[in-house]
Automatic annotation (TrEMBL):
It comes from Mobilicoccus caccae. Belongs to the DeoC/FbaB aldolase family. DeoC type 1 subfamily. Keywords: Cytoplasm, Lyase, Schiff base. SUPFAM superfamilies: Aldolase. This is Deoxyribose-phosphate aldolase. The keyword Electron transport does not apply. It is found in: Cytoplasm. Pfam families: DeoC. Pathway: Carbohydrate degradation; 2-deoxy-D-ribose 1-phosphate degradation; D-glyceraldehyde 3-phosphate and acetaldehyde from 2-deoxy-alpha-D-ribose 1-phosphate: step 2/2. Catalyzes a reversible aldol reaction between acetaldehyde and D-glyceraldehyde 3-phosphate to generate 2-deoxy-D-ribose 5-phosphate.
């Protein structure tokens, strides 16, 4: 079983409620340092944000619906990069997915990738995660989304926003995503993970990052 510190190092400590205040974001950052998590994930309007040493900053893009023009998503991501983020979690356009237009899915991911510089020679690489809303998709659509994300140069695929009525992460979706990307991309499980047991099940299925709003409750079930 992973230790508390090993699981903490996989967590994006998340606060994405629309009514979140700067004071709550500051408390999130303070708690992130205390818990030893990998990063905090906050809304773009909360940027820039100060964090303890060793804690990364992530934000969202095209959130939560994904129903934005690609150029708007790219502009939002570029603004977040200027505001100092280390990682961007973008939501795909589900209408494109549901109508089988995966070339367009790839194109919008690529547009955001270009707004989030990465790779050799980049002074401050920004990691890109692609949120596919796996609970709203068929297995075939999950696979096609993951393949489009890989072709477009994303770093991670991510299950869910946590706001879709279809639900959040499932062990089955995480396992399918992990098989599809084959270790070439990371897999982030996010949405409805509230217990230690659920978090461990996601890791066992292949998750390499966890998006949690209740990080302390999950970590309290573990020991070093």
């Amino acid at each position: 079983m992973p230790t508390r510190s090993e699981v903490a190092a996989l967590i994006d400590h998340t606060l994405l409620k629309p009514e979140s205040t700067p004071e709550q974001v500051a408390e999130l950052a303070r708690e992130a340092g205390e818990l030893g998590v990998f990063s905090i994930c906050v809304s773009p309007n909360e940027l820039p944000v100060e964090v303890p040493a060793g804690v990364a900053v992530a934000t969202v893009c095209g959130f939560p619906s994904g129903a934005h023009h690609a150029e708007i998503k790219a502009a939002e991501a570029a603004r977040s990069v200027r505001d100092g983020v280390d990682e961007v979690d973008m939501v795909v356009n589900l209408a494109l997915v549901k109508t089988g237009r995966f070339d367009e899915v790839e194109a919008e991911i690529r547009a955001v990738r270009e707004a989030c510089p990465s790779g050799a020679g980049v002074e401050r690489p920004v990691l890109l995660k692609v949120i596919i809303e796996s609970a709203a998709l068929t297995e075939e659509e999950i696979v096609a989304c993951c393949e489009a994300a890989e072709r477009a140069g994303a770093d991670f695929v991510k299950t869910s926003t946590g706001f879709h009525p279809a639900g959040g992460a499932s062990v089955e979706a995480v396992a399918l995503m992990a098989r599809t990307v084959g270790g070439r991309l990371g897999v982030k499980a996010s949405g409805g993970i509230r217990t230690t047991e659920a978090a461990l099940a996601m890791i066992e299925a292949g998750a390499t990052r966890l998006g949690l709003s209740g990080s302390r409750a999950v970590l309290d079930g573990l020991s070093d």
